[in-house]
Amino acid sequence: MAQGTVQVTHTGTSRWRRRTGEYASLAAALEAAAEGDVLTVAPGTYRENLVVQRSVTLRGPEGSPGSVRIAPLDGVPLTVRASAIVQDLHVEGQDSAAPALLVEDGAPELTDLRIVTRSASGIEVRGGARPTVRRCTVDNPAGIGIAVLDGGGGVFEECEVVSAGQAGVAVRAGGHPRLERCRVHHASGVGLSATGENSSLEAVGCEVYETRGSGVQITARATAHLTDCDVHRTAADGVTLDTDAVLTLADCRIHDIPENAVDLRSRSVLTLTRTTVRQFGRNGLSVWDPGTRVDANQCEIFDSTGDYPAVWVSDGATVVLDSCRVHDVPDALFVLDRGSRADVVDSDISQVRNTAVSVSDGATAQLDDCRIRDAATGAWFRDHGSGGTLNNCTVDATQTGVIVTKGADPTIERCTVDSPAEAGFYVSAGGRGTFQGCRVTGSGGYGFHVIDGCRTTLKKCRTERCARGGYEFADAGPDAGPGTGPVVEDCTSDESGLKQPTAHETAVETASQATSVLGAIPGQRTTEQTPPVTAPEPDKESRTSKAVLGELDGLVGLDSVKREVRSLIDMIEVGRRRQQAGLKAASVKRHLVFTGSPGTGKTTVARLYGEILASLGVLEKGHLVEVSRVDLVGEHIGSTAIRTQEAFDKARGGVLFIDEAYALSPEDSGRDFGKEAIDTLVKLMEDHRDAVVVIVAGYTAEMERFLSVNPGVASRFSRTITFSDYNAEELLRIVEQQAEEHEYRLAEGASEGLTKYFTAIPKGAAFGNGRTARQTFEAMVERHASRVAQVEEPSTDDLTLLYAEDLPELP
């Protein structure tokens, strides 16, 4: 198409100064135009690089959309630096280093533009520009669809990015656009992206879909607000937040996501209101790291397509669910790791194939006025340090209402378990727990089933219509000492002839057969009461260093770690003996750096190290106090030093274990209080060098950076011990240990299946090494339970053998 002519209507301040002219090029017309002039471009192809520097109107002919092509061979086809009006143009760019349409200043109005290009970006807004962009489309398979950066802003109304070789919309370096009723799809990268401090993105009534990256990605202290938006059919996560990102979702819909619907990490904060999350392949909400937080109100998470928990909270993160619904999922809420917390208020959890609420690895969950229905397990507090509160909750139609195992110690108050197929409340393997004012009705098994001599407290509880009996207390065996077994006060049952233990008595009962962690029901009961407990439980005797080193040697793998610890212990022991002989002893710095991935045994080794030092008389107690950034760093000046001092005081006589210590010294730490924690810690280590052993731990690369930027810290540590990842054979051994501990066996072919599984499992950020092995075993046990529950009279082999078919699918 030949280049056409340009007609310009010049408009002055007086009606007598109006005139019309025609120009052979757009550049000439723009040069001649004055403020307020209208440039009507004739149909044709213009191989010019246009710059609009005055408040003019530049438009194509009416009734002929797409007939004017701005298509230079290189450079920026169209640059706008004024509050001009540009409409009805077709813009094409070929320069991979330049945008097709660049808006650098003013508040122009850009309407009905079609940008078909292979440029760095289709539309780029920067500097002080605040354009209003209406009904524009961007087709840019080579670069970014729309880029807003360097403080740029503006409003995009009813625009569409039909393809992008990178992000559909990218906001960075302080950009802050608003998108209204826009569509972004078929992007090879992220759909909507905002990154960097002071960068923000607001979207209302928008749709993001068919992206190879995440639908929405907010990172590095950027903020975003999405209202009435749809995010769906992404190849990666639906929404991702990382590194102090802040996002608000109101009345949004996130669905048809093969990975995590929403994934948050590194102190990011998400607020969801009246938002639905459905049809996700992994977690609906995946929340990681200290300081990371989700607040959800009136939201619904449902219809999982994978085998993962709907809500996953770990590594010190926090989730609050208020008036929410979680249903039709494999597992509903998993909270794990010390410092992790979930608060659930007035919410419904239903149609859960496995566990509705799982609390493990020292995490905490608090449920108030919640309803759990149609689940295999209502709530499971799994291990030592795990706890929380269930208050005024109802649990209906489950296999087991509440399970407490392995030292977990929750408080259950005024809760009702109705129609469980097995036990209403089941406590085993050293679980504790306080049950007050709770009620079990219509149980197919026992109401309260407490075995292994667990020191559980039951107060003012009630059972009704329980098929096997209201209360079953199976003892811990012939070696159990005084003070074992539950404490029962003012509990009642409709069971005929039930004799209740008197207040403050310990009820100890025996079972005719052993029970597994899943709560297989014992047969005939016999009851024997012990005298009231009046003396406190004696302190646990400290072990010898030889015994503790034996436990260290028994850990799977970690050969280099064991050698390092033994070498250090040998140095300390010989130094102690030299001092006793009146000889000089070499100075041994006991503080250590542990590096490696999560789940490689760092916390376990730290605990054993403290116990060994106590057995050698180097430390008074040898106990372990584990902290992270959130425990040490306050929110205002002065509070950090107080928190750090308190943590140090708790660790006196033992080991202060600082996990993810590198978080105390972030790369961008201009306004961070982490340095105050480090300075306080260094001084305390110097002033009380013999009172506390400090171990700092974290990922290898991050810890190297941490020590390099803090020479004062590095100088106080004697050595670095690296914890290598477990290989497939070592992960298999961990599963074998778990199986033996819980009285399971691996059937023929299961070991080979596990080895192949651990070899093939993705080793990404969610891979937890030893934790992955434990979770795999638990998944096998749950699948085994689902299979064996269908067998009317299972044999011992049926109840104990785990097959390769019980393995979960690869994530």
TrEMBL record:
Keywords from the named record: ATP-binding, Nucleotide-binding, Repeat
Recorded hits in InterPro entries, A to Z, give: AAA+_ATPase (IPR003593), AAA_lid_6 (IPR041627), ATPase_AAA_core (IPR003959), Beta_helix (IPR039448), Carb-bd_sugar_hydrolysis-dom (IPR006633), CbxX/CfxQ (IPR000641), CbxX/CfxQ_RuBisCO_ESX (IPR050773), P-loop_NTPase (IPR027417)
Record's family?
Belongs to the CbxX/CfxQ family.
Q: Where is this region: Disordered?
A: 477-506, 521-544
Q: Which residues form the AAA+ ATPase domain?
A: 588-727
User: What is the name of this protein?
Assistant: Right-handed parallel beta-helix repeat-containing protein
What CDD domains does its record include? AAA
**Organism annotation:** Streptomyces hokutonensis
Boundaries of every Carbohydrate-binding/sugar hydrolysis domain copy: 41-172, 313-474
Q: Which domain of life is it from?
A: Bacteria
